[in-house]
Amino acid sequence: MTSNLSATYQTPELNFTDYNDTDQQYNLVQVASKQSIYLLFCVLMVIICILGLVGNGIVIRLLGFHIKRNPFTTYILNLAVADFGVLLDLFPLVIHEIASMLIKKQLFHLFIIPFHLFLMMYLAGQLLLTAISMDRCVTVLFPIWHRCHRPPRLSTTVCVLIWVLCFLLSGVHMILQMMTMTEILGYLFLAIALLCLPLITVSSLILFIKICFKSQQQRRGKLLTAILFLLFFFLILAFPLSAIWIMLSVFHFFFLSADIVLHACLVCACLNSSINPLIYFLMAHKKRGQSRQSMKVAMQRVFREEENPQEQLELSTQT
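RE: above sequence
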């Protein structure tokens, strides 16, 4: 994918013997226009990556070191790590693309590892969102079972399995690409999409219906609303990158300006990894009079809805 994305930034070789002066000028203008669009995309991704790294870093620090973890925050912490990894690995790739446009030279071999780390984090984010959506649906549909019979280590086990699976998938893809030049990225995206998209879509509908009919439950509604926003932004921002790549590499469905659309989807995926912390912060400060609360206490109010009343009382006392 690195080489394919980078290749779209390269200026096509023009055969000046086959065109008249008007055709030459038109092609040069068209190439310059595309390069300007690509450069704009790169600058946007650099800005988004920086902001997203800061936001996800704050979430990782709070959930990892300052807030007592529960089964749900385990998923959120791992999702923040995945988003942080997506942005961290995408940042050098974008800088490479900017440099490539300036010096007209590609250094693909230097970015094989960052790209496959990006792939692992991107796939992990999709699977973690699927696990989060299914966990919330079980909580909503079977609250007694979820509270009394849910295995205590289920969240940790699921997260470990997701990371191992994504590591193996990205590792297999890297080995095949380096040794046999076989490109299976589109098929990986297709398999993950067939698994995640139906589950996330159904879960989103269930949570949306639950919010509509249980809006009076303020604390539960706040958390479900945050999750619904996560799923909604994933469907409109992150998933199109997989969809476009599947269309191009698996079904070989090419269309006009496909390279521009692909890079626009990459910007959207970058934005999706950066917007999740903003959703948490907005949900944490939804009420009036919370401006004096620390971010730690505000985040606790969002993610500790399942705690027992005694712990909620202790949290109010801390505030």
